[in-house]
Amino acid sequence: MNPNPQLIEACKKGDRKAQEELYKQCFSPLISICYRFANNKDDAAILLNESFFRILENIEKQNPNIPFMAWARRITVNYCINEYRKDKTRKKYVEVTDDETLHRYSDTEIELDDSGEYSAEVLEIVKKEIHNLPNTTQEVFQLFILDGLSHKEIADSLGMQKGTSKWHVNNARKKLKEVLKGTLKIISSLVL
């Protein structure tokens, strides 16, 4: 959901109440990005606040033809990547918490249980396998799948070739597909 244009205009004029309202509206989508780069809530909050400060600093430069939230997410992701490079103690993996994310990760057809969701066992196995991916593959995979960056943007952000970014995403998908297919066969055999 994008904030209304009047709110953004008020923020451009330095209206503190408008800035506070914009922060509230942006909080949920942006904090989820920050959590993927942080070790704890405090670190995520720091990343969010610094990112939001940059959003307000550059709000005058925001192209009105680009949806505001897409622009704000991009600033947040770029800030988090820069901080991540500086601080190697931040976590280097992603969290899979829902069925939609699992489907985007696996890029394959997976049978759902009777409720229309993936079983807890499948989600746990996928989480474990994502954690087992090499660090760079995890990072590229996260930026592509969760944050929606293009391969060119990932390559530019991480200082690699565009083809290398594609390789990491394809390698992660291939490994996850293999694990999921094997897991589903085991689960099916246990149920039957």
Quick summary of this structure?
By secondary structure, the chain is an all-alpha fold. Helix content is 71%, strand content 0%. It has nine helices and no strands.
List the helices and strands and how they pair.
Elements: H1 5-12, H2 16-37, H3 41-57, H4 68-86, H5 99-106, H6 120-132, H7 135-145, H8 151-158, H9 162-191
Tell me what the structure shows:
The protein is an all-alpha fold and 192 residues long. The chain folds into two domains: 5-86, RNA polymerase sigma factor, region 2, helix turn helix motif (Rna Polymerase Sigma Factor, Chain: A, Orthogonal Bundle), CATH 1.10.1740; 99-191, Winged helix-like DNA-binding domain superfamily/Winged helix DNA-binding domain (Arc Repressor Mutant, subunit A, Orthogonal Bundle). It has nine helices and no strands. Helix 6 (120-132) runs antiparallel to helix 9 and helix 8 packs across helix 9 (162-191). The longest helix is centred in the last third of the chain and has 30 residues, at 162-191. It is elongated and about 55 Å long. It starts with a helix and ends with a helix. Mean pLDDT is 76; it is low at 90-117 and 187-192.
